[in-house]
Amino acid sequence: MIVVIPAYQPDDRLVSVVNELRDRTNYSILVVNDGSSPECDKYFKSIKGKSLVLHHRANYGKGRALKTAFSFIKNNYKSEDYVITVDADGQHKIDDIISVAQKAKEMQNALILGVRNFSDKCVPKKSRFGNKFTRFIFTAASGINVSDTQTGLRAFPASWIPEMLDVYGDKYEYEMNTLFWTTKAGHPIVEVQIKTIYCENNVASHFSPIRDSLRIMFVIAKFMMSSITAFLIDYILFTVFRYLTDDPSSAAAIVIATYGARIVSSTINFLINKNAVFENKSHSRETVIKFYILVVCIMIVNPFVTILYKIFIPAQIAKILTEITIFPINYMCQRKFVFAPVGRSSLVRRVKHLFSDKQNDHDRKA
Predict the structure, then answer these.
(1) How far is it, in rounded angstroms, from Cα 168 to Cα 164?
(2) Mean of pLDDT over the chain
């Protein structure tokens, strides 16, 4: 187990963390000085014999500090080892660090998160709001529920490092982006409850929930643009098909126009969402089947909603309101059902995995 501690402007708490880790574990300890001022040199010197210290000439950010450590691990350790990242400000108790490390060895191919209880009264309002905000956005964009997106206590196999070095970000957004990478790679995320500690009301935190969530918002923005493109195609064809019928205002004309337009627009929508929005790498027929199951369900519901609106407003406006009503439902279904992260979407794959585990248990007993 290799402990990575990125440190910027540390104090005695860094020394305490390193000393206690050295006393209670046999973990390797790797500290990265992310361009701290000369006044902090005494803290790095005091841990020099107990940990390896790497230095940045300037403050590049937490993400860059983690990547520096990961590069060193890639070149000097085995891929069978495990990595655990720990904050330098004393927020992580040694017992919790050990618990997360042990869970990583048990799960082997999972990302282990040490998660805090944000309902605790000691949590500052800024941190509580930031976590709720990023949780909501991350879940909407990834389809995965994570109770603490901001935690710095994480453990994972060292074999992941070559790919994690390619994850974008040099500052706090890097940790959020690694969560996205984990879900896209199909690795499970396992949570371990840890003590909730905020030193001095967390005044030293440089995390910005708004700024560091823009990347997540971009995913939703891409989906919206894809939906608008598909909607414009759908709307134009809907209007054309209606006026090709004998009675454009009839319910039959609305049903025929809705289905005809949706067949064309849904194909374009599938290609855009798969490749540009959710970046789904699956080439299986299962993804296509799930998408068109959703399309059929929406096609069944769509004209009835339009007809209902048409009682009160013109058909063209009713069509627009129908799409607005269905948009959030469509997004969540595509995110969680159709284009779910690789390794989590297939019911068949889960069943195979279940029986594979049982077979492996049987083989081990034999």
Answers:
(1) 9
(2) 82
More confident residue, 313 or 281: 313
Q: Are 315 and 241 in contact (CB under 8 A)?
A: no
CA 53 to chain centre: 30
164 within 8 A of 206, measured Cβ to Cβ: no
Does pLDDT of 102 surpass 50?
A: yes
| Euclidean distance between CA atoms 221 and 205, whole angstroms | 28
- Cβ-contact 38, 145 below 8 angstroms: no
More confident position, 286 or 50: 50
Mapping DSSP to helix (H, G, I), strand (E, B) and coil, where does residue 4 land?
A: strand
- Residue 322 structure tokens: 């129908």
- In which residue are the tokens 């909407």 written? 140
Task: For residue 336, name the pLDDT band (cuts at 50, 70, 90).
Answer: confident
Which H helix or E strand runs over 214?
Answer: helix 214-243
Question: For 4-31, what is each residue's pLDDT tens digit?
Answer: 999 999 999 999 999 999 999 999 999 9
pLDDT tens digits, 150-193:
899 999 999 999 999 988 888 877 888 899 889 888 899 999 99
Helices (H), 244-338: 251-272, 285-310, 315-333
DSSP characters for 49-60? TTSEEEEESS--
Q: CA-to-CA distance for 22 and 16, rounded, in angstroms?
A: 10
**CA–CA distance, 185 with 173 (Å, rounded to integer):** 18
Q: How far is CA 63 from the centre of its chain?
A: 16
- Reading across the β-sheet that carries 111-115, which strands appear in turn? 52-56, 28-34, 2-7, 82-85, 154-157, 111-115, 189-193
Q: Which of 113, 114, 89, 105 is nearest to 27 (CA)?
A: 105
At residue 132, does pLDDT exceed 60? Answer: yes
- Alpha-carbon distance of 297 to 303, in angstroms, equals 11
Record the tokens describing residue 105, joined without a space.
Answer: 């060895």
Q: Give the C-alpha separation, 259 to 300, whole Å.
A: 9
d(CA 326, CA 322): 6
> Which carries the bigger pLDDT value, residue 52 or residue 333?
52
